[in-house]
Amino acid sequence: MYKIxxxxxxxxxxxxxxxxxxVSGSLVALNLGLYERGIEAISNFFKNVKSxxxxxxxxxxxxxxxxxxxxxxxxxxxxxxxxPTMLLFIGLLIGTVPNLFKKASIKTKSDWFYFIAxxxxxxxxxxxxxDNKFIYSDNLKNNLYVILIGFIDALTMIIPGISGTATFMxxxxxxxxxxxxxxxxxxxxxxxxxxxxxxxxIGLGLGIIIVTKLMSYLLNNKKDIIYPxxxxxxxxxxxxxxxxxxxxxxxxxxxxIGLILFLAGIKxxxxxx
Length: 273
Hints:
The chain is mainly alpha-helical. It is 79% helix and 0% strand. The protein is built from 13 helices and no strands. The protein has helices at 4-19, 25-31, 35-43, 49-80, 82-94, 97-104, 109-127, 140-158, 164-171, 174-182, 190-221, 223-246, 252-272.
């Protein structure tokens, strides 16, 4: 039984994770114990409308509050205090890894095969990063690509460990993704901007429906396979995030503050788990 204040707090943390570059909101939801319940609530909403509505509403309130309150704060913190801020969220992720391993129960050769295969895949995808930038023009190919971007955004939101920010950077469409809603106020291209948003929303809607149904099936029928895969996504994402953060130049004060926030993040995630 979930308590409403805890749902809102966890939703708030998930919303913040969505804002942080390189952090997967669904991975945080998994680590906070809300992922499976969320998938069930979305994919089988009408089986228990009242319970699912209460769950989704309260988590949604937390996410919306974090976006409204946290976006500018996080943007400022990342700009001025990148290293300590990122260590706080890495701590939040690491704090629940032991529980994730318990759920995965990686023991057999096949479990380790899935775990290692996904880890190698993540390395390959990282190496395939492109510097080419997607520039939109109104034609069938690009319109289909915008729908694909919406679908992939849904996929990265739902599958734990896959960062939407990192994925769009790999595809060369991160700047375009950021501009989708920010250009809505640009009256010079209002018709084109509305069309882009509608195409994106079509892909996003299809992605949410298809991927939640798929994840619901896998969690209910193939949990012995899906959890080693999710765990690999999670561990590889945390490692790559740490390598990226440690690659930044830092002062001794930032290091000390970062370590304190890192430990605080671990403590918070263990408390909420």
